[in-house]
Amino acid sequence: MTTPITVPENLWDGDGEGVITAWLVDDGGQVNQGDLVAEVMVEKAQYEIEAPVSGVLTIAKQEDEVVAKGTSIASLET
Amino acid sequence: MAVPLAISSVTLQRPTVEEGLLAEEGLLEMVCQGELSLGWLAWSPRDRGLVMPRRHERLADFPEARARLAERGWPVRFRATGGTPVPQSPQVINVALAQRCRVGGSAAHLEWGYHRLGDPWCDWLGHLGVADADLGPVAGSYCDGRFNVRIAGRKLVGTAQRWRRVRGCRDMALLVHGAMQVEGDPAELVAVVNDFQAGIGDPMRFRAERHIALREAIPGFQPETLDTLLARYRG
Question: Are residues B82 and A43, on separate chains, in Cβ contact within 8 Å?
């Protein structure tokens, strides 16, 4: 089963975009539910993104890529 | 030897830049672990440094720029909040507020976090006799954002945040930080940031006249007055 990792919808108002500032796990890495996997910056705020489930990470958006709210930035294969 | 900073003290503390940044991360972690629901740190470094998010390390010319600044007495340090390079020195006072927030409510918005720190700061400035303090962007200032504390349109306080989930539940922990130049000429600090800009080959330069130090607006300001700002963050 594939579970997406998305940028939260309720983090900020308006249509501004964020940027992926860091992946904390390599592509193909095994993560546990709740592990920190990435950081997204928007409006000078660093937001930590956790793995919603345990699984193998496939990164879809690279560091320094621009992302909107709700964007799927990676997936987890369980 | 480093002494741990006191959480929610109304006395201004004087750590090194590195100790202050570590204390802020520790404060956020205390909220994440459920040890606190609200706390703050007020500190002014006793040394100097140019502080930035770690992603700047990926810039091609970063190692040379870092070495150049270190030679001039401005070592690079990394912080957990977002934004771009900001100088820290004994001329700067920092206030960091950490708070537990319920996800799904208005507290989940970044805007709420900036107002949580910035609105009382503007109110405090008004109490000290500054009539034209507000929140907003300052074009031409370093580390600009939409929620600087401004005096007459010039940047007094730069603000930034970090959000982390509270362990074992859906609540979030917010760390919101403000850095305010209190004394000295803003041109000295702007020059440090512009030096870094030159070192990494970025053509953007910042303008000293877009910044203001607190003592330009309040010549008689005493750091002890800070307790009346910190009191505004209780509850």
Answer: yes
